[in-house]
Amino acid sequence: MADLKALADAVIRGDQATAVNVTKTALKEGMAPKQVLDQGLIAGMDVIGARFKNNEIYIPEVLIAARAMKMAMEVLEPELVKAGVKPIGRLIIGTVQGDLHDIGKNLVAMMLKGAGFEVIDLGVDVSPDKFAAEAKARNVNLIGMSALLTTTMPGMEKTIKALQAAGVKAKVMVGGAPVTKSFADRIGADGYSPDAASAVDTAKSLVA
Ligand code: B1M
Asked: Are residues 73 and 109 in the same domain?
């Protein structure tokens, strides 16, 4: 019988082979894909998120765990689709125009995937028009923007204006080293997070 605690532990350790094997065994035994996701993969990433938030682990451990989760998700995803399991929210995420930094944005994207969001990553140097066009085309309920340069932060405000002009109703959350809560409030963002772990809490509260 597949052990979902062992699956969560494999994610926490970043043990890709075990994560994939336990996922395959669970599915072969007829376990519900949603149960494998919630009690195995997401349970493991929740622990990673909490440890990261408490500075008990650092970026490399998060990336290793996220990779194990990604490998297992490749096995699980088609079964989730077949079972009609819906993600808890769908978002686009990108680094704003003129900015090529993506390590933090990727980390946030991975944590959100780990928490059960469908994440569409637009990459770096994303223009306000592209954010607006993708938000409309993909019918998302959340938009995430990252900026690492003081010179590119104004791109967040421009993007919010472009989203409003395009009639996009999705919530907007922002983050990145130079971004602050007061900046986020000033430009009219719905949410701000200082790090990837709290970004999950913010995203969940925005789509709730
Ligand atoms: Co650049 N860089 N860089 N850089 N770089 C910084 C940001 C800088 C602070 C270095 C410095 O001068 N001390 C400085 C910015 C100064 C400023 O504007 N205040 C700087 C500069 C000036 C530049 C260039 C202009 C340098 C030059 O060419 N003269 C140039 C700009 C290029 C461009 O973007 N157009 C440049 C280039 C680069 C590299 C390409 C070499 C490389 C990026 C590689 C890559 O990302 N693929 C790079 C790097 C690596 C850095 C530093 C060293 C590290 C950034 C990083 O990845 N941190 C950085 C200095 C530093 O921070 N020590 C620096 C780790 C990452 C996990 O943290 O991105 O903050 P962070 O993400 C966190 C949170 O902020 C938050 O969660 C993450 C995880 O906890 N978060 C969100 C991020 N996005 C979020 C979104 C959310 C919520 C939370 O919601 C959607």
From this structure: no
pTM to 2 decimals? 0.88
Are 111 and 203 part of one and the same domain?
A: yes
pLDDT digits (tens, 9 = 90+) for 106-129: 889 988 988 899 999 999 999 999
In terms of domains, do 62 and 110 share one? no
Question: Which pLDDT does position 104 carry in this prediction?
Answer: 87
Rounded to the nearest angstrom, the distance between the alpha carbon of 98 and the centre of ligand 1 is 12
Please tell me the residue having the least CA distance from ligand 1 atom 78. Answer: 104
Ligand 1 in reach of 181 Cβ (< 6 A): no
Answer whether 102 contacts ligand 1 (Cβ < 6 A). yes
Domain that holds residue 197: 90-207
Contact criterion met (CB below 8 Å) for 203 and 109: no
- Counting the structural domains of the chain, the total is 2
Give the atom of ligand 1 at the shortest distance from the alpha carbon of 150.
18
46 and 141 share a domain?
no
pLDDT at 111: 84
Find, among 77, 184, 203, 186, the residue nearest to 141 by Cα.
203
Are 162 and 133 a contacting pair, CB within 8 Å?
Answer: no
Mutate to test the pocket of ligand 1, among 96, 148, 198, 200 (most ligand atoms within 8 A of CB): 148
Q: Do 101 and 197 belong together in one domain?
A: yes
Tell me which residue of 113, 133, 120, 118 sits closest to 62, measured CA to CA: 113
